[in-house]
Amino acid sequence: MLFSQGEANNWYFGQFAGVNFDTNPPTALTDGQLSTIEGCSTISDSSGKLLFYTDGRTVWDREHNIMPNADYFGGTGLLGDPSSTTSALIVPFPNQPDLYFIFTVDEPHHQNANAQPNQGPADENGFPLQVYDQRPGATVPEVDDGYNNGVNYSIVDMTLRNGLGDVVENNKNNHLITYDESKPEQIKYKSSEKLTAVAGPDCNSIWVISHFVDSYYAFLIDEDGINEEPIISKVPPQIGLDFYGGNASGYLKASPDAEKLLIANTQTVPPLAISGNVYLYDFDKLTGQVSNPLVLADAVRPYGIEFSPDSKKAFATMSNNLYQWDLEADNISESEFILNMGTFQAALQFGPDGKIYISGGSDLNVINNPTEYGENIDFTNSILSGAIDLEGNGTAQGLPAFVQSIFNSRVDIINGEEQSGDFKIETVISVCDGVSYTLGFEYESGATYQWYENGEILPGETNPFLEISLPPDEEAPFSTAYTLDIFPDSDECKLSGLANAIFGEKPTLNDATLSQCSSGFAFFNLERAREDLVMSTGLEAEDFEFEFYENTEELINNNPIQNRTSFQNNSNHQNILVEVTSKETRCKNTANVQLEVIDDEIEETIEVELTECDTNLDGFQEFNLELAAELTSFTPTNFYTKIKDALEDRDRITNTTEFSNTEAYSQTIYFRTLINGSCSVLGVLNLRVNDLPFLFEDKEVFYCVEDSPEPITIAPSVPENAIDDYEYFWTASNVEAYSIEVNQPAIYQVLVAEKATGCEAIQNIAVKNTSTASFQVNINDGSETSNSIEIIVDQIDNLANYEYALNNPSGPYQDSPNFYNLSPDVYEVFVRNKYRCGIAKRTIKIVGAMQFFTPNNDGINDVWNLVGLANNQNANVQVFDRFGKLLVEFKARGNPGWDGTYNGKLMPNNDYWYQAKLDDGRILTGNFTLKR
Which InterPro entries does this UniProt record tie to the protein (predicted)? Predict the structure, then answer.
């Protein structure tokens, strides 16, 4: 069989998110470079070590560098699209361990289809557009290369680049036909966004399956490569090409046992917003045929779909709901179970641990028991219950695609049990304190076995079991990976098991004591004992996990204390048992925490004060309450917001080093302390928030270069009536003054300190040169009265806002660069910045044309001509009838114009057209009316 369990152990997806399944529980990966809206794929080797990952356009190697021959923005990318549901799918090459296929699927965009065969985007009439309609700034190539590329495949050779791999130059972006070549509309789109892969008819073959309109296309890969002639199955439903950019989305998945297909047709674009569906099919892995369509849901908006690891349950996400069907039910459609999960448009993908994971924002939500039914599936978005914290990164919509059969060839070599029941297989084992552990799995009938360490054959290890221990030349902690391949004597395919072994030592712990001032009973924060417990390890408390138990029996029954931050003792000097686990090695040890209640009367009260400057200008700041120790002769132990809580030791403040006051500007906090084992002091801690001078915003000042070298004066934004309340320091020049004079562009920084409180604020003042504007004028003329101009300031000079005037450098000026309703004439255009410097001037000429003339010899409008020509301006004018026949041609300057005749004959009342070539190169065209 092609697959080993470790191939899916690393996931990279979403917005730089990742998960590693070599740990238990799985942990976040934060080193990924991939940022995708939807589709992606990742592949690891048999021992779970990352090989490469992709968003369908760019491929990153195991060191997170881009493969040179797969760099989309470098011009060498693949033809997928991160906005495609399954933009990429990585498939091993049978019997070629160093070769991998990358199948890519483009997003079939309607504005690319409009332009076909040319590059999009284009409107529905085929006219080019600057951006796609999906969002502002959506251009080529940032969001799309302008073509609908359909399904393609490339080959990665891992022997290239010294084992880092690269896409093979002459085996890249090979196109596969997944559409009816006789139908032009299908050629425009080429494919949906759906792709899946599953085991083929034997142990060394794979089916890669796509869907488009009403047909499935199944391509067989074997040791000879890919057969580019697909097996085509035409089955319902038919997904129309109207609004196909939206109709194409949604996942396609094969069941792990290769007997079923599940498809989600989203159809999200109006008017098809609620006409999507989920279908189940039979799949014949011997022939590649798809048959027996069954509607599971109709008139819905599905997206993610998945099978349970045992192939007996089906799942789908629709809007905010999770759906499940029992595929062994008498009526599968009616077995529908619905659960609200609060996550919209979510992908589903089961992992190496037998759980199904769901994209969900900053966390990866989980179905813990996907082989169960209904509420028993145990869906959760809680980190404490199995969801995965992505440590600041996000899932977006998609999750990585894998060959589904990877998850159907697993055995548990840690517990020695074949996958069954809940399909949860352990892949991580901790071996502590130099002991040994036996890994293995014995097949039920005859088989041969081979063990590997980190992907390398272990010579002579051909038994079903392997005893492991810390190698003699290594020191704990030490990690390695063991893999067992099982080759049944029957025709069944290879099975594989993986154990990520961590050799470590039990942490050396100290017992700890927690003391409280109270009368008989008190509330203890058990977390406060963590540092003392692990002091001997030389590590931080954050390197360990802690569970507290009331006694040994509770530890054995795994019943930890739940209220660990507010635990009430039941006797004085009560002993609590704590189990401490190393996060790195998972080795654990136990220690004791003694709870001591000191019963004493308060003998003294002391009052101290902490102050902070109000950097937020709202009266709230963070305080380190522990600093109160510097103001007293003793060390405060516990802090409270109410005096009653302090006297009774209830509701302690837990975040003492980052406490934010809850009452603006001032708040009283209370504390208790021990002196020589006595609870003799109650403290009052007053928190004061002092006003800052100001929360300054950066400031810009413009310097008119024509005034150089005369200086200008700059100063911070302090009100004039408060200038003397502050001290000033200019950092660059070491000047202590309210204002300084400058004549050079730069960023000047001034520190403003309030004399009364010492609170400080910094303001950056940027002095920028502003010079005479460089601008162009767009003239829209040709009318007798309704001409206009637009003034365009060159971007390089656009350092400030400009204002505009006509004919008078003194104005009036206006903010708008547009002037309307201008009569034909010569105009002076003036542009200046709003700092009243750098006036620029340009002369323009607006030429108009008479809209009608009446050649009846009454001395009024007897001839037609251009109007507004300057004395030094010329124009060559041609007049045409409505059939385009040239009637007259003349020079407008010095010529009275056209008198309405042609070859001495009077022309009739009608509209006539003109073309005028001006001496500045512009051409005016339009029409006018002859009236007699």
Answer: T9SS_type_B (IPR026341), WD40/YVTN_repeat-like_dom_sf (IPR015943)
